[in-house]
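To make this tangible, we now present a fold written out as tokens:
***
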Amino acid sequence: MIDLHCHILPRMDDGPATMEHSLEMARIAVKDGIRQIVATPHVMGKENAPDLIRRNVDILNSELRGEKISLEILPGADVYGLLDVRDLKNYTINGSDYLLFEFPHSHLPPNAEEMIFAVLLEGLKPIITHPERNPSIIENPERLFDLIRLGALVQVTADSLTGHFGPEARECAAYLIRKNAVHFLATDAHSPESRKPVLSRGLRAAARLIGKEAANRLVFANPAIVLSGKILDV
């Protein structure tokens, strides 16, 4: 499996505090069947510059090889949607046109459509992260559907489907998946303890909703297309 959203780089944000914690996350991921992870530290301003992210990805990959952990880390970022749109191209997933695009956790801005359109005009493909945990979308999923119609893609947190983020997020995630409004499952993991890099539980929950073949696309085929930079046909 491929995890497109994971805070696995040490000492960069609210993810792991040490390299050993990062390595423990890697061991958990490999045991779960994950073979590639996009490292996505939060980018909300001038912190975590692109060169710093790539350098830390290289360091972690070197540590993984030294520990003989069969996992590849690729560069990306969890980009705050209120950043200057001209800066976003520096934070794409593995050098592709795709990037993780995070709205404020508390609400969906009234100009969300304009924000997504501005990203698309830059030639980028925004992937909206964990919308099932956003109160505005929980209350009115049609707002997310409008963004998808514009050209946005959607990533749901795997553990939302298991109830880890509460019943409202679980119900919203299930509804979005049944409506074919989800293109990726990812862990959004932050630690080897409370928010682990585990996809399999969410994958099984998705398979119960839409069948195994369709669920598998969310963690195999679709993220592989993103990493290759090809166009995802939705």
About this structure: The domain at 2-228 is CATH 3.20.20.140 (TIM Barrel). The two ends are 20 Å apart (CA to CA).
